[in-house]
Amino acid sequence: MSDVLLSVDSLAVHFAVRAEGLIFGRPQLLRAVDDVSFEIATRETLGIVGESGCGKTTLARAILNLVPKAAGTIVWAGEDLAQCSPARLRQLRRDMQIVFQDPLGSLNPRMKIGDIIAEPLMTLDPDRPRSQMLDVVKDIMIKVGLDPQTVNRYPHEFSGGQCQRVGIARAMVLRPKLLICDEPVSALDVSVQAQILNLLSELQREFGLAMVFISHDLAVVRYVSSRILVLYLGKVMELAHADELFSEPLHPYTRALIDAVPVPDPSVEYGKPHPGVGQDLPSLLQPPGGCVFRKRCAKATGICRDKVPALEQVNPGRSVACHHWKKEECGDG
Q1: For residue 218, which of 252, 194, 242 has the smallest C-alpha distance?
Q2: Residue 276: its pLDDT value, please?
Q3: Where are the beta strands (DSSP E) in the chain?
Q4: Which of 2, 115, 189, 214 has its CA 20 to 30 A from that of 315?
Q5: What letter does residue 185 receive in the DSSP assignment?
Q6: pLDDT the model gives residue 2
Q7: Collapsing DSSP states into helix, strand and coil, what is residue 291?
Q8: Looking at residue 328, what is its pLDDT?
């Protein structure tokens, strides 16, 4: 891929977890992210989808070095982040910012929104005069659709959509090159969701942003993403361009997610089949052997039980981890 901004190779994030109620004893290993690889180009949006508990947020935090990785490499603009000094990592944080899921919970209720938005500037650019910081804060507030005269108000005085705009302004005040959006619209009304999605698209065009957009809603991800990565129990199931993924899904899990997207017409929605994926999501502490999706997959065979499917390149820009990925077996055919 040309103009690669971020390259993630064989990334793994593990946590040691003790069984509930046990004080002593050996902790179990939870593989929250397991052998994930992808690249993001300048100005590209990579959507990451999957059910709750599949490792999407952990993956995002690992990219930002907010949780330690167990294995793999994260290369930002040619620099391996594992080889960077703490001082260098601090400098690079200007270029990588995040928008959180909870619009109100991610804001300090004791701080005025002007101070919340200015906090990254005060942390990473402390020598800048306070008057200049205020000018930068008011400018970014205008760009995200907030009244700059409200800098002295507190988060509880704003709606959920406005609080999310404050969070976006805080992330954008440093003019980053990569914006990670972790379920940024899941807590908002549908009409407000559309406004926030359009705002993110506008900011991407204006500032040349690359974005990682995380959601469990495939319809939302399709709206903003150029490519989509499907994650299940910490593993990549499929990676493809958005239109290609929707027109011809190769992995049964991708097909199940697409089938779960509601159709606006009630007569069509009630009449369409809802095959689902069988059992509940397995525990990450005890994932199935072989293919992690096999216990919920109607296409599973003996090889799915005995062998972990490799992430196989189907064509340039498209990969799938399934023993039966051929169209006649896993697609519409």
Answers
A1: 242
A2: 58
A3: 4-17, 28-41, 45-49, 71-76, 79-80, 96-99, 178-182, 210-215, 227-232, 235-241, 312-315, 318-320
A4: 214
A5: T
A6: 60
A7: coil
A8: 44
Taken in order 108, 110, 113, 118, the sign of the CA dihedral is negative
Q: For helices 160-172 and 130-143, what crossing angle results, to 10°? A: 130
Name beta bridge partners: 6.
Answer: 40, 76
Q: Give CA 80 to chain center in angstroms.
A: 21
Residues of the chain with pLDDT under 70: 1-2, 19-25, 263-279, 327-333
**Is 114 exposed, middle or buried, given 0-12, 13-18 or 19+ CB atoms closer than 10 A?**
buried
The residue count for the chain: 333
In one-letter notation, the amino acid at residue 270 is Y
Residue 263: count other Cβ atoms within 10 Å of its Cβ: 11
State the distance between the two ends of the chain, measured CA to CA, in whole angstroms: 30
What is the pLDDT, as a whole number, of residue 125? 87
Phi, psi angles (nearest 5°) of residue 205? -65, -40
Contact between residue 179 and residue 171 where contact means Cβ atoms under 8 Å apart: yes
Which helix (H) or strand (E) covers residue 102, if one does? none
Per-residue pLDDT tens for 15-56? Answer: 988 766 556 667 888 999 999 999 999 999 999 999 888 999
Contact 152, 99 (CB under 8 A): no
Helix 130-143 to helix 113-124 angle (10° resolution) is 120
Q: What is the pLDDT of residue 267?
A: 63
